[in-house]
Recover the amino acids of this structure.
């Protein structure tokens, strides 16, 4: 079963809001075996609504529409659907009563504009919206399904969860779609693809592979569909097992894992405490860690040592090291990692020092040069990175690389024990 | 001039990512007088790419495409466009050289997959992409414009800003659209709207007002269009001047200003240095500050004092204060702000301590309770906030509120001098 999602509203097209409804709907539809063919955003223009819905009914089995059901004059979705489907607006008693109650609860009089929201195309089935004044509408059009819902995200989600998804689930009987996402770090996309060339070539025909890069990591997504969910999951797991043998160190997690959540789990499961000393990353590592709820179980805190004086006074870095090797050096970053570990009394220390840019580079240390160190009770490891010239990316890449080094160090020390 | 935006990628349709490119593009296109007719998201399927692009070229003057230009096999946008426009892929020398340099800089060999990214449809004009390996492509098709760009947001934005928007701006001669955005903080939307009721009622007919709330601030956008850009800008400025009289303390900036950039400018223009002591914000304030290029001119660094021990050892907070009043208290947060100012030798100190959630609340101090202090040579001010139960929003709101308190303190101390 194929669906088209149509989101209606001028505010989407002028970039005033980001359409997040579609992504949520796509994700939920997938889970009940419905594939989204396309997502179309259009303004509240009568002709465009009618032609887009008409075309979508031809292309797809299901058309899900959000937006344009508000009480003000610019909202015209109901009228457009009436004209397109040859229906007319009639007052729906239970909806009018529901609207009346909402206004009574707020101690407000019922306005004419709002009571008009109880006028519904006569040929549709009303889907009750407990969270707002505009109900959902379910149309059966030439054995295709058309559903119109309000654009307010939580109202749309309520109607989808209570009415639309359960019904579609019942239609799509038998067929399951399974997606598994593997999170990788440390190999650029082309290297990853080359390394996985044979693995991909031997992939069973029914499993689809996609590489989804973002500025810091690459997700590999395996997708398949069929009648037995268990069987598909088993087949996909077999491919993940093969992948784990090919790039064991590069796979850091699955689905919505982040590097910070994976490192957090490693620390808490091994009763380990972390402290950080950040220069070029300027608090971003701490920010990523403390974004995780419960991070106080494994994170003591840290020092943002942006100036050299702070490296010396708060972390105990020998000022001669800075004079001799410069702040962006293996010597200084290792001393920072060990310093923060000692000062704060943690099991592990992370430190960064580099040139985030866009200025401050030298021929020997161009913008994007970053030293990262990770220290443990067993010693300290460090690495020099060369990122590009984009400040934001440098900070993020340095931060995630540092967390990844910590991840690998904890794993290797666990192995040795 | 009407545009259609097409975003390509299975990940959008299955809800793995939210398409934020379109909103950004819609906003920027508007500024150069181009109206977006529709936004369409489709998967990497050859037939669908060709039919959607073909239809869009018929519907619109400009078709902007993002996505599907990666080095892996699932990316097929270039091939589809070649077939649709009757062109063929040829190696583009400067792009190949650019890719070679990117890999050389990272100390990596050039792979065959990546060198294929230099193969470009022969009939297009190449738009250099300094931030990545896939260039943009500009096609003139039957006096319509088709532009294909990578889907990675910052690469797309770079190509749009450097090449596409300036050219489109030159086409839209005569009519100017002017948008001015005023950044406000500290008043909820309904309060702001009520306060500005008369101002809005007296607005000239040709100026449009929009309120754009996000989780932490509310932007007010004034828009107008006409033949004289100067005249429109003058009219809009008159309205901004009136607004400044109504809510002087709530307006912190304009256009793309952030609270951190505004505070950074204030500090650097007055030769002041800042240090931060963060508990519940866990490094986010430092992260927001150091996100600004050049922040080392006014930011010394700080301490992420996540555990109470660190508050005592690194910031010099009296442990009796913590025992008596608790870590989330006026006494402790003021001591933290003054402690970090003294220890790091800055002109101003910021401190936060609170319960970010979702757990850790008590009846007296529920989740969302946050104390913020700002200290200067003249003394210390503090405030207790009650944010909601959402961890991410609490951290961000606390951080921006702290920066706003610093902004107001510097402004008031400047006034007194």
């Amino acid at each position: 079963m194929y669906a088209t999602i149509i989101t209606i509203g001028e505010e989407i097209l002028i970039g005033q809001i980001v359409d997040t409804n579609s992504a949520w709907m796509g994700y939920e539809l997938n889970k009940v075996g419905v594939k989204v063919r396309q997502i179309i955003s259009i303004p509240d223009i009568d002709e465009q609504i009618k032609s887009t819905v008409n075309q979508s009914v031809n292309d797809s089995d299901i058309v899900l529409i959000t937006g344009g059901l508000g009480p003000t004059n610019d909202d015209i979705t109901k009228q457009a659907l009436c004209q397109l489907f040859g229906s007319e607006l009639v007052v729906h008693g239970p909806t009018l009563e529901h609207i009346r109650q909402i206004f009574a609860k707020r101690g407000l009089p019922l306005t004419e504009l709002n009571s008009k929201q109880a006028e519904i195309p006569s040929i549709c089935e009303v889907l009750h919206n407990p969270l707002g004044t505009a109900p959902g509408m379910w149309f059966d059009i030439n054995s295709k399904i058309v559903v119109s819902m309000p654009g307010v995200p939580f109202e749309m989600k309520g109607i989808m969860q209570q009415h639309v998804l359960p019904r579609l689930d019942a239609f799509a009987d038998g067929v399951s779609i399974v997606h598994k996402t593997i999170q990788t770090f440390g190999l650029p996309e082309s290297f990853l693809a080359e390394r996985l060339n044979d693995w991909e070539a031997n992939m069973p025909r029914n499993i689809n592979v996609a590489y989804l890069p973002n500025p810091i990591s690459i997700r590999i997504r395996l997708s398949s569909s069929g009648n037995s969910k268990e069987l598909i999951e088993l087949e996909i797991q077999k491919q993940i097992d093969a992948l784990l043998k090919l790039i064991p160190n590069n796979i850091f997690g699955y689905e919505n894992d982040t590097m910070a959540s994976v490192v957090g789990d490693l620390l808490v499961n091994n009763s380990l405490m972390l402290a950080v000393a950040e220069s070029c990353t300027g608090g971003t590592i701490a920010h990523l860690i403390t974004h995780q709820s419960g991070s106080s179980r494994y994170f003591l805190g840290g020092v943002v040592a942006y100036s050299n004086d702070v490296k010396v006074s708060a972390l105990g870095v020998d000022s001669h090291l800075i004079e001799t090797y410069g702040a962006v050096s293996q010597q200084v970053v290792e001393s920072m990692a060990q310093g923060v570990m000692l000062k704060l009394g943690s099991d592990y220390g992370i430190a960064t020092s580099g040139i985030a840019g866009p200025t401050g580079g030298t021929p020997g240390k161009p913008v994007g040069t970053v030293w990262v160190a990770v220290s443990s009770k067993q010693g300290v490891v460090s690495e020099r990175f060369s990122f590009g010239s984009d400040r934001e990316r440098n900070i993020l890449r340095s931060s995630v690389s540092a967390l990844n080094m910590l991840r690998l160090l904890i794993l290797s020390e666990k192995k040795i024990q």
Notes: Chain A touches chain B through 89 residues (CB under 8 Å). The two ends of chain A are 53 Å apart (CA to CA). Chain A is about 45% helix and 25% strand.
